[in-house]
Amino acid sequence: MTGRILLALLTLAFAANLSAGERFARGVLWQVTKAGGAPSHIYGTLHVADARLAELPAPVRKAFDGARSLTVEYVAGDYGKERFLEAAMFLDRQTLDGKIGLEDFARVLEALMPVGLSRDFINKLKPWGVLLNLRNPQSGEGLSPDAQLYARARVRRIPVYQMEGVEEQVFVFDEFPMESQVALLKHALAHREELVAMAEQTLQAYVARDLAAIWRIQQEFTARHPQIAVHHADLTKRVVYDRSVVMAFRMQRQVRKGSAFVALGVMHLYGPKGVLALLEQDGYRVKRLY
């Protein structure tokens, strides 16, 4: 659901909780069991395409090959894509340049027009729609880990379940206060190079399977930009914590049957509010595999 710029923005807000949840400080593949049932697996992914993520790690492939189903955050069909795009746009007389000003709108045009979006189209995007479309100019090609797993599931013809619907995806961003949308977009535009660099560091930490480092990377940046701390806190609650609670509950429909494979954003794993801690609270045994 997120590009690299938003990935960096999200991780900014996590640093304040670094000391919590060292129980899950490292590892992206976890085995979960309950009451002697067959084990299931939870895999934390990054929702980006990059050459370093072009092949699923061997332990992940092995766990997935033994799974009877795949559960993901969300599968975007044709309707879902159209609905999400519609929600990301102003359908009245409001415009992006009216929200962020002409100077920042020019920055948005510079960032988005090279990917084929017209000026008029961009001007009808809501600020959160722009944030989701900002990309690292050097983004890699290929499939994200989530997309790779989905493709493998289709080849194996195993069922694919989703933990969220399109309206829930829309709600996360569309009910985000406009003041916060504008503040985060303007800040991202002003510090884009720094955020791109932080996203690269985050990817490196992910490859090293160091969840605590993903948070720790952001501490200095957060300290340098306290003016947007309140907006980041709201973003974290909406995008991570609230959704982690929902996903930890909904994945259990498959996990409790055993031999389920669950893939979700790696940010949902770490800390006392992450899905691993929540599953332990529900009586599951959680073991790191990779």
Helical content (DSSP H or I, runs of 4+): 40-55%
Major sheet attributes: 6 strands, mixed
Instruction: Round the mean pLDDT to the nearest integer and report it.
Output: 90
Helix run count: 16
Across the major sheet, the strand order is 4-3-5-2-1-6
Poorly predicted segments:
13-20
- Which range does the strand content fall in? 5-15%
By secondary-structure content and strand pairing, the structural class works out as alpha/beta
Spell out the helices and strands N to C.
HEEHEHHHHHHEHHHHHHHEHE
Shape: globular
Radius of gyration: 19 Å
Oligomer: single chain
Distance between the termini: 24 Å
Number of strands: 6
Description:
The chain is of the alpha/beta class and 290 residues long. It has a domain at 4-78 and 141-166 and 199-282. The protein is built from 16 helices and 6 strands. A 6-stranded mixed β-sheet has the order 4-3-5-2-1-6, with helices on both faces. A hairpin with a 6-residue loop joins strand 1 (29-33) and strand 2. The longest helix has 22 residues, at 229-250.
What's the SSE blueprint?
Layout: H1 4-14, E1 29-33, E2 40-45, H2 58-65, E3 69-72, H3 78-87, H4 96-100, H5 102-112, H6 119-123, H7 127-133, H8 145-156, E4 160-162, H9 166-174, H10 178-190, H11 192-207, H12 211-216, H13 219-224, H14 229-250, H15 252-255, E5 260-265, H16 275-281, E6 285-288
Parallel strand pairs: 2-5, 3-4, 3-5
Antiparallel strand pairs: 1-2, 1-6
